[in-house]
Amino acid sequence: MTQHEHVRVAVIGSGFGGLGAAVRLRREGITDFVVLERADSVGGTWRDNSYPGCACDVPSHLYSFSFAPNPEWPRTFSGQEHIRAYLEHVADTFGLRSHIRLNHEVTLMRWDREELYWRIETADGATLTADVVVSATGPLSDPKTPDIPGLEGFPGRIFHSARWDHDYDLTGKRVAMVGTGASAIQIVPAIQPEVGRMTLFQRTPPWVMPRMDRRISDAERWLHRTLPITGTARRGLLWGIRELQVSAFTKHPNELGLVEKIARSNMARAIKDPVLRAKLTPSYRIGCKRILLSSTYYPALARPNVDVVTSGLAEVRGSTVVASDGTEAEVDAIIFGTGFHVTDMPIAERVVGAEGTTLAEAWKGGMRALRGATTDGFPNWMTVIGPNTGLGNSSMILMIESQLNYMADYLRQLNVLGGRVALDARRSAVDVWNRRVQQRMKRTVWNTGGCDSWYLDANGRNTTVWPGTTTEFRKVTRAVDLGEYEVVRARERSAGAGAAVGAVAAGAPAPGVAAASGAFGGFAAPAMAGSAGKKAAG
N or C: which end of the chain has fewer CB within 10 A? Predict the structure, then answer.
């Protein structure tokens, strides 16, 4: 990267969101962009998470781009290595390599109010400017490790599931596994046969459904290669089934009782000890936390070399780990499966907006963004997988593609407006959007299910999950409504004077945002007739 390079768009991150944004930019005819990646290869969370047993819990044909179908998926739920290879293939197939800058960790993004662009600094000392920033760092990119007293004095090996130490041989070792989330239930059965003893620290037991995984036959792959429409139909069927399930999560949580019975049966088949079964039985409504899929987790816990401790890790004394209930164990290694900084993303501390405040400061009361994408006070800055765009039962790729539609129309609107111009989300529009999201959130299983999940922020607000269907989200992100934005223009320079900046209201006044036409399911759909992005297959 040359010093002081200027681009139309800077994309941060090269996971599904970043590569998807890059593909969409090229399809829109925009080639003046870069993808800034802090690591030495693309892949995002599927590069970072390489722990034993790592795989996706969404069917492969749905967990892939609609514009880049893969007829060669080897399993119905493919492993990390196959998903990462798919992302590398996307980068090659769509000619993205020349745009990707590896080993370019962004350390600061600051809005220039005079020039109306973003000044970006990277860890290697390079600088560049960009008219628009698309942040696609994702919520599962920065591991969270709890602050445990005495941890710094532990003489053995410590690592997080997302930073797996492949040089450390676990054979015969005494291992403490901290956490029972989506990563842990894959790690436990993968390493249980080789470790000497495992102590699993469980604060809250998860609901675990059987994983209906199988090898995709050669005949199926041949059919999808030969008749691509069969792959599209398979994807559509998988999508439709999950859309029909949404109302149970968002409107009628009591309907999930039948699902709980299936999960209980999954446990009962493997766990015969009533004491252990009691430890592993959740006391909250299924779906309140992420529903996990595994047919090997419970059998692993029933093995004689595994101990389940039903409280969190509270202290480390030398090589002794101590639970909150006083249980002690001598271990050689501590593995943290304790999740990520989801509601307090570190990237927010590196973004400085129009008023000189960081995004983290703007979000100190909780993450909030208009249609999950833009935030007031941060012109021409967008997120992919932003606040309240997560899913509890389907593929995030569907949400990403919807946000890419919004990004594409955002850039079109800037082109139509012409000149040095920026769009800044109205605070009133952001407030209206988030009030509606939180109002609908009240009756969902994530708020009524009786659990404390990583979906909730420090204030107890669910700023992570989308309380509706992917179809709803697709409709409300189809196009940009200029009535929800202020148009900020750079006035012409006068002799001997710097560029002054003026704000021009566009479309309906702020109060009109709340009454925007085309309301859909309680959310204001775009009221303007701007061109929408090409609708990707659901």
Answer: N
Q: Is the dihedral of CA 426, 427, 430, 435 positive or negative?
A: negative
Rounded to the nearest 5°, which phi and psi values hold at 339? Answer: 80, -160
254 phi, psi to nearest 5 deg: -65, -20
Per the structure, the complete domain to which residue 503 belongs is given by: 5-141+341-513
| CATH number of residue 176's parent domain | 3.50.50.60
15's CB contacts (< 8 A; 6+ apart) are: 42, 43, 44, 45, 46, 47, 87, 136, 138, 141
Question: In the predicted model, is pLDDT for residue 499 greater than 90?
Answer: no
Q: How far is CA 415 from its chain centroid?
A: 29
DSSP of 88-130, one letter per residue?
A: HHHHHHTT-GGGEETT--EEEEEEETTTTEEEEEETTS-EEEE
- At 12, the amino acid letter reads I
Strands (E) in 408-525, as ranges, are: 421-425, 485-490, 501-505
Domain boundary among 317, 336, 355: 336
Interatomic CA distance for residues 7 and 30, integer angstroms: 10
Q: In this structure, are 20 and 160 located in the same domain?
A: no
Residue 183 pLDDT grade (very low, low, confident, very high; cuts 50, 70, 90): very high
What is the token pair recorded at 507?
A: 């479309």
Residue by residue, DSSP assigns 203-227 as SSPPPEE-----BPPHHHHHHHHH-
**Res 492 pLDDT > 70:** no
Statement: residue 535 has pLDDT above 60: no
State the pLDDT at residue 523.
52
Q: Does 110 have pLDDT greater than 90?
A: yes
DSSP string, 52-95: TT-B-SS-TTTSS-TTS--TT-SBSS-BHHHHHHHHHHHHHHTT
* Pairing mode of beta strands 157-160, 33-36: unpaired
Q: What is the pLDDT of residue 537?
A: 33
Q: Are residues 263 and 288 in the same domain?
A: yes
| pLDDT (0 to 100) of residue 507 | 43
Return phi, psi of residue 148, to 5°: -105, 125
Give percent of the chain with pLDDT exceeding 90: 90
Model pLDDT for residues 380-428, shown as the tens digit of each residue: 999 999 999 999 899 999 999 999 999 999 999 999 999 999 999 999 9
Q: Is residue 532 part of a domain?
A: no
Least confident range from 87-91, 142-146, 498-502: namely: 498-502
Q: pLDDT at residue 293 above 70?
A: yes
Place of tokens 């892949």: 43
Sheet holding 501-505, edge to edge: 421-425, 485-490, 501-505
Q: Please state the domain count of the chain.
A: 2
Verdict on whether the full-model pTM lies above 0.85: yes
Residue 146 lies in a domain: no
Both tokens assigned to 198: 């495992």
